[in-house]
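quick one before i forget lol
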Amino acid sequence: MAEFNVPDRVVEAVVAFLDAGAELSRLSAAQPRPTEVAAGTAVLTDEQRAQWQAAFAEERRLGEVVREDPWWAEVEPGRRIAAEVHVRNLAKAAQSQRDGQAPSAGNSV
């Protein structure tokens, strides 16, 4: 599975991007449903809105860090998607190791 020589900085950036996405999902789940807000049965506070917007901005920033890394220029034409899958799998394995979990078998990209 070492068909790509991925620098650690790329894997670390993808780990940070995935972590930011998980934080965004956590914040989204904690907010009231849009239909509840529209119906007036719930309120989205300024603090909730600001936290979500900050998390969204961070996820976007990290996505740009990943996408703009010069390593991607080294990936041969036609192999970009395979490289992305490989990098994401490396990042998920790094997350699992960091979190003390066994890496999942299979491709859950």
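fyi The mean pLDDT is 90.
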